[in-house]
Design brief:
Shape: globular
Largest sheet: 9 strands, mixed
Radius of gyration: 21 Å
Distance between the termini: 12 Å
Strand content: 15-25%
Length: 376
C-alpha cells in the first residue's frame, strides 16, 4: 500500500477525570445500603417474599474483574447512601454539555499528537455507549467548539462504538469524502450504573478518548499507523442491556428502574463472547496476510481481565503478557467502547517501524470490531 492510497491513524488522545473511586469506597456504600434495606424489609425477607440486598467486598471485585478503581466525572452523590448516583448539575442550552466537555478535552490531545489543526479536519464522529441527549448531536456541538468546518454525527454501538466509528472514518477517507476525521469516545457511563447492585456496581468508569484518521500522504506525526484492514460483526443477544430511552417517558413504570440501567448475564456473556472474539481476531489477522505470531501487540477491549486472558490464551497458546496485551482496567475499570483505545494510548509509542498491532472491542449487541495496524 503506497502513502497515496493508505489510510492511517496519526494521533490519539486520552482524558480522564480527576475523581478516583476505589473498590473499597464502592463496597462501603453498597454494604451500608444493604444493611439499611435489609433492616427496613426484615419481615418480608424472613417471609421469603423479598430478596435481601447482597453485600460485597473489594477482594471479590478484583478477583471477578481485575478492577481496582475507576475515574468518575462527578464523585459527589455516589457515596451518599440515600442517593447512590452522581450529582451532576444540569447546564443551560447555551453552555457546553458535560459530554461535550469531555470530548473536547480528548480531541485536543489527539489533534496535537497528529500535528493537525481544526482546519485540517473534515468530519467529527462522537461514538460511545450513551449520549447525553438525542439532539443536537454531541459531535456537532464539539465540532462548533473546536471550530471545525464540515460535518459531524453521533453513533451508538455500546462497547464497540469506538472501533465501529474508526471503521466509518476509514471508509470516508477511502471514498474521498473526507481528508481527515476526528473520532471521539466520551464515555460518561457513571449515570447508568446501578450502584445498589452487587454484580454490576463496580464495573464502569468515565473517560474520553480520541483518534485522528487521515490519508497516508498527509500524515506527519511522530507515531503513524497504517490501517491494514477492518472487520466487524454483530450477533443479537439479550445478555447485555440498558433499556433507558425517550420512550420510557410513556411507560407506566419507573423510567429509572433497575431494568433501565446497565444489567447483564455475566456468565453467559463470558461463555459466548470469548470464543467469538478469538475467532474474529484469528480471521482478521489471516485476512491481512499475517500470522498470529507476527502481531506485536493486542489492544483489547477492557471489560474483564479473565475474558482478555482467555481470549489471548486461545490466540497465542498462553495468557498474553502485559507487553503483548496490555491491561488497563485495573486503573480505569470498564469504560465501554474506550477501553481498547485507552490501551492503545498508553501502550503504542514503544512499537518499532513495521510492527503489527490489533485494536479490538467487543460487547453488547453482541458486537465485535477490530482494526489491524502496522506502524510506519
Amino acid at each position: 500500500m503506497s502513502a497515496n492510497d493508505s489510510v492511517v491513524i496519526s494521533g490519539a488522545g486520552l482524558w480522564n477525570p480527576e475523581n478516583v473511586l476505589t473498590n473499597t469506597e464502592l463496597v462501603q456504600v453498597l454494604n451500608e445500603y444493604a444493611d439499611k434495606f435489609n433492616d427496613e424489609h426484615a419481615s418480608e425477607i424472613e417471609a421469603g417474599t423479598l430478596e435481601p440486598v447482597a453485600k460485597s467486598d473489594p477482594d471479590f471485585i478484583t478477583k471477578a474483574s481485575g478492577i481496582r478503581q475507576r475515574y468518575v466525572y462527578v464523585k459527589d452523590g455516589i457515596m451518599d447512601v440515600d442517593r447512590m448516583r452522581p450529582r451532576i448539575q444540569e447546564r443551560p442550552d447555551d453552555q457546553l454539555s458535560h459530554q461535550g466537555e469531555m470530548a473536547v478535552a480528548a480531541a485536543k490531545k489527539a489533534l496535537s499528537a497528529a500535528n493537525k489543526k481544526p482546519a485540517d479536519i473534515d468530519a467529527v464522529i462522537v461514538s460511545c455507549a450513551y449520549t447525553q441527549r438525542s439532539y443536537p448531536a454531541i459531535a456537532i456541538e464539539v465540532q462548533a467548539e473546536l471550530g471545525i468546518e464540515g460535518f459531524g454525527f453521533d453513533m451508538l454501538v455500546a462497547c464497540s462504538a469506538a472501533t465501529f466509528a474508526l471503521h466509518r472514518a476509514y471508509e470516508m477517507i477511502k471514498a474521498g469524502t473526507a481528508r481527515a476525521v476526528l473520532v471521539i469516545n466520551p464515555e460518561l457511563t457513571s449515570p447508568q450504573v446501578n450502584y445498589r447492585d452487587r454484580d454490576s456496581h463496580f464495573i464502569f468508569g468515565d473517560v474520553a478518548t480520541a483518534m485522528v484518521v487521515e490519508r497516508g500522504d498527509t500524515a506527519d506525526a511522530e507515531h503513524v499507523y497504517d490501517i491494514l484492514g477492518i472487520k466487524a460483526k454483530t450477533v443479537y443477544s439479550n445478555n447485555i442491556r440498558s433499556n433507558f430511552g425517550f420512550v420510557s417517558h410513556a411507560f407506566d413504570s419507573d423510567p429509572f428502574g433497575p431494568d433501565k440501567l446497565f444489567h447483564q448475564e455475566g456468565r453467559k456473556v463470558f461463555k459466548e463472547v470469548c470464543p467469538m472474539a478469538a475467532e474474529h481476531l484469528a480471521v482478521q489477522i489471516e485476512a491481512v496476510g499475517a500470522d498470529i505470531g507476527q502481531v506485536r501487540r493486542w489492544w483489547l477491549h477492557q471489560a474483564n481481565i479473565n475474558m482478555n486472558q482467555l481470549i489471548t490464551k486461545r490466540l497465542l497458546g498462553h495468557v498474553g503478557t502485559q507487553d503483548e496485551a496490555p491491561i488497563v482496567l485495573d486503573e480505569y475499570a470498564n469504560t465501554a467502547s474506550a477501553g481498547s483505545i485507552i490501551a492503545f494510548n498508553l501502550h503504542h509509542k514503544d512499537l518499532k517501524s513495521g510492527d503489527l498491532g490489533v485494536i479490538c472491542s467487543f460487547g453488547a449487541g453482541y458486537s465485535i470490531g477490530s482494526l489491524a495496524l502496522r506502524k510506519r
